[in-house]
Amino acid sequence: MRYTPKQIEKYQRQRYITFLEKVTKNLFRMFRNEDTTQEQFLRKFKELSKKLDEQVDIKLNSEYHQEMKSYIERLKIEIELSDFNFNDIREANMTLLNRLQKLKNGTSYKKDKHKHKSRNQDWG
What we know:
By secondary structure, this protein is mainly alpha-helical. The protein has one domain. It is built from five helices and no strands. α1 packs antiparallel against α2 and α3 (63-81) packs antiparallel against α4 (86-105).
C-alpha cells in the first residue's frame, strides 16, 4: 500500500508536534526538579535539540505550536551564546513554560455564551 503525499505530511506533522511537546515537557520537568544540575540539563537539552534538528521541519499553524517552537529556539540561542547559569534562568523559564501551558489549555475552557448564563441567573 502506498501512502499519499497528504498522508505523509500529516504523519510528519503529528510526529513533529509530538516531539515538540516532549521537549517542552522534559524542560519543564528539569526546571521544576531542584536536584537537576547544570551539567545534566545541558546534556539532556543538547540531546533533545539534536533530535529536533533531525526532524523534518514542518510549517505550524497553531499559535501554541509556533510559540513552543520559538521558545525552544530562543532557549537554544540563550544557552549557546551567553555565559549560561542554570539556577539563574530557572524561574524565568518556569514562567514561560506555564504561559505555554495556559495557551494550550485556553481552548478547553467554556465558551463565552455559556459563561453569560450563570452570570445572569439572578435577573429572573
